[in-house]
Amino acid sequence: MLPSHSYVNISFFQPHAFLMIGIPGLEAVHGWISIPFSSMYTVALTGNCLILLAVRRTPSLHQPMYYFLSMLALTDVGLTLSTLPTTLAVLWFDYRHIGFNACLVQMFFLHSFSVVESSVLLAMSFDRFVAISNPLHYAAILTNNVIIRIGLAIVARATLSLFPVPFLLKRLNFCPDKILLSHSFCFHPDVMRRACADITINILYGLYVVLSTGGIDSLFIILSYALILHTVLGLASPRERIRAFNTCVSHILAVFVFFIPVITMSMIHRFGRHLPTVVHALVAYVYLVVPPVLNPIIYSMKSKPIREAMIRMLKR
């Protein structure tokens, strides 16, 4: 970092690197804290990779529902890998530096995978709606070509939504004495507040991305389940109602696991700046680490075909 007397007359400054932080106030026990983090990362990667292998190698799972589950698993792998290197570097080796451009790249992928996960959960709710409301035409509606197009649209949506974000940050003048981040990864609200410039455009565009992706997705997921509930209640047999609703339980749990931390994280960053930094750090880790860990557990417990296929993969 430049000494204080050397940047007085600099009109534009971008740091060579930011300093990351693990869990504030617990630096002395980062080595111990790294054990549960390493375990969670291992569970997330192993569980989601098992789901991908199980679906790929089990012909009976070559159905729309499991293709969408594969998309969710692949997204969780990407979300996990986007934060794993820097988080474990901080906790294991106390290596806290991340280059400015590397920070922007990590931030882009982190938020992109988050948008993709939201979109996949919406696609999965549409899949459940079609399967329950129109079971006879389910396979005809959700063909392989349709699923591929949905997947490409999801990736394109995330890429186009997040593509401007790094460039909006690169135009900012940063403060040489504000290079300490609040997390062990680069999070957009955190990075932009290190600038010594007007960040109104960044705030507004960030809010637009949140509302146009997670906000719209959550509304359509609620609408899908309102229609599903209407269809299920119209079934004559109570047994059929229970069976139809049981096919949605895993997805409902996955939606809660993803959206509750996302909403909490957004609210804290906008209205909870007075809260201790350790609260910000812990909520961020829950938001990024817990969903990839829990999703494979949820689907392996609630879906017998997935559970049996995963067990077969482990026995090979």
From TrEMBL:
SUPFAM superfamilies: Family A G protein-coupled receptor-like. The keyword Transport does not apply. It comes from the Eukaryota. One of its GO terms (biological process) is cellular response to lipid. Keywords: Cell membrane, G-protein coupled receptor, Membrane, Olfaction, Receptor, Sensory transduction, Transducer, Transmembrane, Transmembrane helix. GO terms for cellular component: plasma membrane. This is Olfactory receptor. It comes from Nyctereutes procyonoides (Raccoon dog).
